[in-house]
Amino acid sequence: MLNRLTIRQRILVIFIVITFVGGTVQFLIAGRQLEAATLEFYQHHLETDALLVAATFAEPLGHYLEGEDEGGIGRMLATLQQEVGHDYLILDRNHRVVGYTANTGYEQVDRVPASPELVEADTAQIGSDIRPNHMGEAALYLAVSVRYEGEALGYLVLSEPMAPAYAEVYRRYIELAIATLPVIVLVIGASLWVSSTISRPVQHLRNSALNMAHGALDTRIHVTTQDEIGQLGETLNFMAGQLETLMRTQRSFVSNAAHELRTPLMTLKLRAEALSDETLPKDERETYLAEIQQEIDHMAELVSSLLVLARIDEGRHTQNGVVTDTVSILHDIVRHWRIEAEAKRLEFTAQIASDLPELPLSPNDLRVIVDNLLSNAIKYTEQGHIQMTVSHTPQMVTIQVNDTGIGYSEEQRTHLFERFYRSETARGRFSGNGLGLSIVKAILDHYDGQVEASSPGAGRGSEFTVRLPRRAVS
Ligand SMILES: Nc1ncnc2c1ncn2[C@@H]1O[C@H](COP(=O)(O)OP(=O)(O)OP(=O)(O)O)[C@@H](O)[C@H]1O
Ligand SMILES: [Mg+2]
Description:
By secondary structure, this protein is α+β, with helices and mostly antiparallel strands. It is built from 11 helices and 10 strands.
């Protein structure tokens, strides 16, 4: 049920329930104590009064019992009632009425039954009881045992309606309630404030997240606090930043791919048009056909590179295998590239440790990595030498390729692994799609490997280092 409420409503409900329950319990406890104290004060006041009055009756009652004082007690009672304002009843030891003022609360009989206050007064000198009087109103009955020289002669009974005491109790309850009210108002105000300080930023986060979801990835949340909500805001900002970069790369990837495909397609179109001319000499026709062949190869290469990258991006690159014969695979690859290097009159040396361990990647991926590095080294070197060194430590295998080719500036170095990136120097003089190194990097990321490039500067050769962990990262 609470789950259906907003955070704000939940906080409000909880605060109000706690305040209400706590306030009521407090109110009842305090009220009870006030009530008890008020009633006790009332009773105590009357008891003192009754004890004093009882003492004054000791002697007259003694005389009365000896038959000497007809009417004296009656007069004393009348005076007392006028002066003090209470109603009294004087009884002898056997509860027989000796004298009384009006409204004593007893049925006016000669003899009074043994009511609780009288029974209590026998043992404790003073006894009390609260019960409805003959008019049906709650009244306090006090009985004091009247003694003369240690002998119990009878009782003085005082009865007072409880209404004034109850009225006082009621008044105190009202006062208490009035005092509690500001506290409740304060708590409700505080809960409104707390709930809004929590719910407002959450609402703000929600709106910003919705904006981001609708494509406004440049939306940023203005983080003002360091608490959990502030941290959530920062996380959302970070997520939006990452998504923005990802979207930008994806978009430029698609537009680059389209652009790269358009140029060879244009060439194909022009050559096909030229070939449709039947008067075209045979040798020109052959040249065009060869160019068409070349463009098709180029496009096929581009498309297969794009497919490799797409597969890796989609997380479908699952060629997890093991290279068991690392040394012989590497020698095999080197054999092919040595021929290419020699065709370009480049010196080629390879130092491959003879005790290389198994590697936790597919042989094909290893081939793609090394092929790309060596093909680049040979392509971008016009004279000098290429050197490949493969070594290992207990943790990893390192493949290093050095060349004496065109190299690159520090600024160019930072872009080498970007998709479609080709340095200005490479663009003018060498063919390529700018995808080889990004494929190498994507494959290595998949296996938790690394690739680094360094160069002393443009025209001064280059060095690429690949590090492959010996154990697959689970
Ligand atoms: N050995 C190297 N020496 C100098 N520059 C290099 C070397 N290897 C790569 N580069 C630079 O890095 C760029 C990207 O290389 P990458 O292999 O990704 O693409 P590419 O060789 O141009 O095309 P392809 O997709 O056919 O490999 C190259 O265009 C070149 O500018
Ligand atoms: Mg390349």
